[in-house]
Write a structure and sequence with these properties.
- By secondary structure, this protein is mainly alpha-helical.
- It has two domains: 76 residues; 74 residues.
- The chain is 75% helix and 0% strand.
- The chain is built from nine helices and no strands.
- α2 packs across α3.
- The mean pLDDT is 92.
Length: 169
């Protein structure tokens, strides 16, 4: 999904998000399409921006995304708060924040989404590992190879294993 996003092949991430919502959260085909559309719209709105003010254009889409995802979440959460945090780490990454810094925000978003404590060490490790995978991508941006994409996938699998441990299954 990351590769499709970075290579601006937007229909493919939409499809992957749709399938993920169906398989992981049990949404109907229509519900999954609505969630995937909101996420895709947020990503597309954010991608060309260069300032925090411009990036705010993605916020309504993120709020819709999290509002819809909340229906299947294991704990209640404030969709607006999570959307703002999501947008914050997206933008922080562009502002040369280190992966350990925005990785903490990624972890906070996951903890809120799954109703887990913010200091959960596995969720924190997930957030940082995911951010480090992004930093790995960014360091290679224009010269990224298929081997790099395989390494990114390996890093992400490890990150999501930590998230699974942190949320308990």
């Amino acid at each position: 999904m990351w590769r499709d996003y970075y290579e601006k092949r937007y229909p493919a991430p939409f499809y992957h998000l749709h399938e993920s919502c169906r398989a992981q959260f049990g949404f109907s085909p229509l519900g999954s399409a609505r969630i995937a559309l909101s996420a895709a719209q947020a990503a597309k709105a954010f991608q060309p921006t260069r300032s925090r003010a411009e990036a705010d254009r993605a916020l309504p889409h993120l709020m819709t995304y999290y509002g819809r995802l909340r229906e299947a979440a294991p704990a209640a959460f404030d969709a607006g708060e999570i959307a703002r945090r999501q947008l914050d780490w997206w933008q922080a990454r562009r502002e040369a924040a280190g992966p350990r810094d925005y990785g903490r925000t990624i972890a906070a978003v996951a903890a809120l989404t799954y109703g887990k404590p913010a200091g959960n060490p596995d969720i924190l490790a997930f957030g940082i590992a995911r951010a480090e995978a992004m930093a790995y991508h960014d360091a290679r941006a224009e010269e990224i190879t298929n081997e790099d994409w395989f390494d990114i996938a390996r890093r992400l699998r490890g990150a999501y294993e930590r998230l699974r441990a942190g949320i308990g299954g």
